[in-house]
Amino acid sequence: MHSFLINFGYILLLLNFILFAIKFPGKNIAYKIFTFYLFVIICVQIGAKICLLKRIPNLFLSHVYFIGQFAILSLFYLKLVRDQFQQKVIKIGFVLVLSTLIIQYGLKPEMFLKFNLYEIFITSFLLIIYSVFHFYNMLDDVKEFYFINMGILLYLFASTILFLIGNLTAKFSKDLSMITWTLNAFLVIVNNLFYLYEWKISYYKKAITNSN
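and the corresponding structure tokens:
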């Protein structure tokens, strides 16, 4: 069941990247940043799969995932929000988080081989705040990337809790830890279904309407 969920999540992720990449030319910067985000996540997943097949420890890729996700989605939300205060918060958060992580890994390079709870929490927490910013702005504005934003918010909120719990439960019970990662694989599927639905209603239907 766990393997099926993971593989299905991979398929949806690849499908989303292909669909968004098809519409890439002529789209705005936010759209292109999000498409690039999907590409980076695919690369991380492929890298993790290769390491697994070759029996190479792949925990270091978790840092690429969390830091890369934070950096790219921060730029994504920076292009979406219009409020100057919100933009300032995103810029300050971007600099502070990356600076503290550089210092942390510079002082303790061995942490590359471990889960970094600070990294998981701070990168996800700030992205949740940025997502809430965008939801708030959409109350009186165009609902751009509405379902993508919903998918990001739900996934980050739930997966952050699961990652933190999973890191603790791994020390006590493999079965309990497996349940945690299975739930996370399910969340990945739900998240990608939100992305797919966004593409369908925002780009596929519009393309059909324009052609008619």
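(Above: one complete record from the training split.) The mean pLDDT is 89.
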